[in-house]
Specification:
This protein is mostly helical and 544 residues long. The chain contains 26 helices and 4 strands.
């Protein structure tokens, strides 16, 4: 997944699969979470796996950090615990101890902390080991053993091997701590080469996900060691190009930009030559991306733009990359020109890169071109109607003081397109979008009228909840319809939803003045489903 954009009630992202799909999630208080994706399944109005992936990624990214406790809520540290304020005088205190006292203190701490003992033991072993012994130690740890057989990788074997790789990382870090940075460079390169072999043996890279973290650590150790050891740029360039074009190229975070100072001008030039040779030999996307990153590392903006421009994506995403590079280089006018060219090139494509639209409109807003921003938003809504694009249109039109006219035109477009029924290319399901839009505008009765024959279950439930007070009979019909198939489902989630619907049904009957009818309905349902004790318990807890 890339380009996750979290806005006000809207999530957008690009999800790679067999093809690249654009996902848009919208969160509203009335309808909850809705999603749109231009994959074949999503184009049918379904909440596809790409929508799920974007939602999970957003949850991970926005998970709130634990709140900082107040000073009064912080318990007193236990005896012997180190408080942050104490750190300032620990070092002077240690320096004041004589040799025997330090040894005694260290012995005491080692006896109390097995992990400290293991770390010190490893440092001691590496400190007195020669180059050959250290190399053999790393080789032994990285012997893939059962994984070398290829085929399916057993999770337990992968987990055990990941621990071995982590130990190898510790060995290399210990070498660096001892000042043996050149050895750490060679050891990290050999280790990454070995890991590449392991990844090549696996049937599926997903089987080796447990290895990703220690492999990232290996790459980080290599970079740190290179910065400390200043190795010869030519072999470093050769190694970097081979590594990034190899099986670990998309697993490790190695980036030529990070190696800029290590390679220097000569090394970067050599790396570019090698990348060009690799592309001529086998013109893969990986080789193209490597050349682009090397050009960025060298700071050659015009050459980088030319490389991007040689293969412009029809959805405008490449134009946006160019615009961002130019903007970063301080060439704002050129950046906007490229972005506008991207809008023109993408035209009315449904898969136009939404971030291109956002970038251009943000730039128009910064420069006072509000009418131009509205024009872009209008075009986007007409080619890719959704609740999110409607909201964006509304914001742009209000900024220009022209919302009433734009609103009327937008609703008319949805009504006219929705009258044809079903899926409309470029507009998705306009009748369903109209329901979401009217709910977002607070026009519940109009949304109910538009929903007839078009709304999905999610929308119907949202409508019923919002009109339960003033249209209880209509809401009751929705709840009863949704309860029918749900009775056939099992599991906690289904049972809690049954209870939720029953509570709503009870409220509707009360508003209609016939609570006894609900009592009969509930008794019949409990009799029908009495063999589900967990459901019965949940109903009891809900007073049903």
């Amino acid at each position: 997944m890339s380009d996750l954009d979290i806005g006000d009630g809207t999530l957008r992202a690009t999800v790679p699969g067999r093809e690249t799909y654009h996902v848009e999630l919208v969160i509203t208080r009335q309808a909850g979470l809705t999603g749109a994706c231009d994959c074949p399944y999503g184009a049918g109005g379904h909440f596809c796996k790409h929508c799920v992936a974007v939602g999970l990624a957003a949850l991970r990214q926005t998970a709130p950090a634990a709140p900082e406790p107040s000073a009064d809520a912080i318990p007193a540290p236990p005896p012997g615990a180190v408080r942050p304020a104490d750190q300032d005088w620990i070092t002077p205190w240690l320096q004041s101890l004589d040799r025997d006292a330090l040894f005694a203190l260290l012995d005491e701490e080692v006896a109390a902390d097995p992990h400290l003992r293991d770390r010190l033991l490893l440092r001691a072993e590496v400190a007195r080991a020669d180059r050959t012994q250290v190399r053999d130690r790393v080789k032994g740890l990285l012997d893939p053993g059962a994984l070398a057989r290829g085929g399916y990788a057993d999770p337990d074997e992968v987990d055990a091997y990941a621990r071995q790789v982590t130990q190898a990382v510790s060995v290399l870090r210990t070498l660096m701590a001892a000042g043996r940075t050149a050895e750490a460079v060679d050891g990290a390169r050999w280790a990454l080469w070995r890991m590449g072999e392991v990844y090549e043996l696996a049937d599926e890279a997903e089987e080796l996900l447990e290895l990703d973290s220690p492999v990232h650590d290996l790459a980080a150790v290599h970079l740190r060691a290179c910065r400390a050891a200043c190795p010869d740029p030519e072999p470093t360039a050769r190694w970097l190009v081979g590594h990034l074009l190899g099986p670990l190229g998309e697993v490790t975070p190695a980036d030529p930009v990070d190696y800029r100072d290590v390679l220097g001008p000569a090394g970067l030039a050599r790396a570019l030559d090698l990348a060009a040779e690799a592309w001529r030999s086998e013109p893969t996307d990986k080789a193209v991306r490597l050349r682009e990153r090397l050009l960025k590392a060298r700071g050659d903006v015009d050459a980088l733009i030319a490389a991007y421009a040689a293969d412009l994506a029809p959805d405008g995403s490449t134009h946006l990359r160019i615009a961002r590079e130019l903007d970063e280089a301080g060439r704002a006018d050129d950046a906007l020109e490229w972005a506008e060219r991207g809008l023109q090139a993408a035209g009315k494509r449904r898969d136009m890169d939404y971030q291109l639209v956002e970038w251009v409109c943000a730039r128009y807003g910064q420069t006072g071109r509000l009418d131009d921003a509205l024009t872009v938003r209008r075009g986007r809504f007409r080619s890719h109607a959704s609740l999110a694009s409607y909201r964006s249109l509304r914001s742009a039109a209000r900024a220009c003081g022209r919302w009433e006219d734009e609103r009327a035109a937008a609703l008319e477009l949805l009504r006219a397109s929705g009258s044809r029924g079903g899926f409309v290319p470029g507009l998705g399901h306009p009748a369903r979008i109209l329901v979401d839009v009217l709910l977002d505008e607070g026009e519940v009765d109009a949304a109910w009228e538009a929903a007839a024959g078009h709304a999905d279950d999610r929308q119907l439930l949202s409508l019923a909840d919002r009109m339960r007070d003033h249209r209880p009979a209509d809401a009751l019909g929705v709840y009863l319809r949704l309860l029918g198939p749900l009775k056939q489902s099992t599991g906690d989630q289904a049972y809690h939803e049954v209870a939720r619907l029953l509570r709503s049904i009870r409220e509707c009957h009360e508003r209609l003045g016939n609570p006894e009818q609900f009592s009969r309905h509930l008794a019949a349902l409990r009799t029908e489903l009495k063999r589900r004790p967990k459901l019965m318990k949940i109903l009891d807890k809900n007073g049903l």
